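Predict fold of PilZ domain-containing protein; 119 aa.
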Amino acid sequence: MANFFTTAKYRPHSRKDHRYEIPKLHLKIADQEFDTYDWSLGGFRIDDYKGRPPVGELVTISQMAYAPDTTADVHATAVVTRILLGKNQVAFAFNKLDDKSFDLLEVASMRRLSQLADR
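Predicted 3D structure, encoded as tokens:
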């Protein structure tokens, strides 16, 4: 008897951290800057870009911000986890977060609540 399992849109998410669309994160990966589609303490999605490393490769994040006045120099790494060709996006999972980047993500998640309350 064959074994089957459900994939893609029919399978529920098994992610540990819920992803947020707001506030947008601004990240500097290598020498390129990106705004996220969504993010969490576990990872993020951005536009695909020229010179993108393949799935499984580490990238270095040197700056993070959730607003223009919150830019911080960080030492974080992330792994390319998925390439979403139809959407022209790349998904990453954080590999290591230094204290600054972790604190910035926590504050950004709290700021999200205040932005939702203002709507």
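Residues 4-11 have pLDDT under 50 and may be disordered.
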